[in-house]
Amino acid sequence: MILETLSAMRDLGRLHDIASILIRYGFGDLVRRLGLERLLEKAGRALNWTRLEELLHLDPPQRVRRALEEMGPTFIKFGQILATRVDLFPPDWIAEFEKLHDRVPPLPFERLRSQIEEDLNGPVDEVFVEFDETPLAAASIAQVHRARLPDGQQVIVKIRRPGIRPTIEADLRLLERLVAIVEREFPDVRRFHPQEVLRQFKISLRNELDLLTEARNTARAADNFADEPAIVIPKVYWEYCGERINVQEYIEGIPGRDFNALDAAGLDRKVLAQRGADAVLKMVLIDGFFHADPHPGNFIYLSENRLAFIDFGMVGLLSESRRDQVVDMLNAIVVRDAATVVDVLLDWAGDAAPSTERLTAEVGMFIDKYHGVALKQLRLGDMLTEMTSLMRDHQLTLPPDLTMLFKALITLEGTGRQLDPDFDIVAQASPLLQQASVLRFHPDTLLRKGQRNLISLMAVLSALPQDIRRLMRLLRSGAFNIHVDLSQLDRFGMLMDRAASRLTVGMVTASLIIGSSIVMTVEGGPTLFGLPAFGVLGFTAAGIGGLWVLISIWKTSRKGEP
């Protein structure tokens, strides 16, 4: 089975490592069902099936998290992406995935020197007047060093680890194969859309591999906050940037997690919490481009209660229509309009078709639960968690951009409450929500949408004569064909044929029973076991026919077919 999917034997060693880790953490049955055991045994590799006693006391989320940690950087980052899927996993799983940290020992700078000098087109000592070879931070994909430019500007230099791309691409190939096998072997998993989760992960990881993407994200955020003096975004020095190197302004201040230093500096926690929330909510509701991981480690506190955002490696994008949906849903919750909330949820869920009546009833109960609650007592994180739980119950999943949004808002509320225990994100969001609603119907916005629609209409009308001419030419030549996709009818035909076969065998079986019963009452003729031979043969044939019908029904019911 798995031999059909593993086309590259060079990944066999990595596969052995992953299978061994899964077995060690109590997922031996998964290894067997995936066929990894047989493949590795054929390749002459033995698996260690010993279980550690200590691991048996871990909860499943803990075992999965620790297994991902041991599998290495690609799987750690995969777990971090899963931590954003609050619509797929319950809170205990999300909490474990959030514990995954991408920290690895730094590489000696001498192993990076040749690569960075190639990217900078010159020796490090000539490009920078100062360069600290001891890294500020190190992760699996890149590590960060501090330096100073000839004009005296302090910068950080983010350098991608040499040879990391081939390793990650090999892991991605392996993940693609494993996800395909899991979908085939565990049909119940399909409702979680593992292929879509993997696609989101591949996009995110490949963007992170290209350090120019982070530079572009940082520059875009800086443009959006150019008129906001209280929010600082690092400047990008494009002349030094490339796919493997990113040079940005070094911002000196108080790290986001150092609350003692924050208090010692006399900064106002409440103001910082409000400004941080306003900035993220502006990104979400107005700009449609937001920092997807606003935890304290990505903040720097500056004098005069200013706030700097760093590390734009993970960002979220919301289209104009998606922002309109978010505004519609939040407004509907406020006015207790369950039907509108359901409509938005169904738009988000795509092709899923749950019971609308039941979903509307449960959304109505969800809204009533929070209606009339004082703003200070509302917890946005609890509301979003409960809503995603409701969606899970109805097998609805969120689009990737919204999973990142929900996760960002939950993280933002937690960060705000760390700064200010009385932080109220709902009250903080209200003015921006109103502003977004007004902007949605502002004359300039309507004019822009009208112009866009008019251009599309004119394009269609301008092409209409040519399309009609082409259609008439096809009609005159007799080459006009209508293609109807009847692929579903093939399966329907098979089902009808199977049903007809069962019905025929059933009727023949019934006829044999009736005929054999009559024969059994007739005296004379050959006998078998003291009974009329033809009657015995008839009952035997009827028994075989009945048994065939029962076995056929049993087999199809096991496959979940009609």
UniProtKB/TrEMBL annotation:
Residues annotated as transmembrane: 503-522, 528-551
Listed CDD domains: ABC1_ADCK3-like
Keywords: Membrane, Transmembrane, Transmembrane helix, Ubiquinone
The keyword Plastid belongs to this UniProt entry's keyword annotation: no
Keyword Cell inner membrane found: no
Domain ABC1 atypical kinase-like: 99-343
PANTHER family for the chain: CHAPERONE-ACTIVITY OF BC1 COMPLEX CABC1 -RELATED, PROTEIN ACTIVITY OF BC1 COMPLEX KINASE 7, CHLOROPLASTIC
Protein family per UniProt: Belongs to the protein kinase superfamily. ADCK protein kinase family.
Protein name, per record: Ubiquinone biosynthesis protein
Source organism: Methylocaldum szegediense
Taxonomic classification: Bacteria, Pseudomonadati, Pseudomonadota, Gammaproteobacteria, Methylococcales
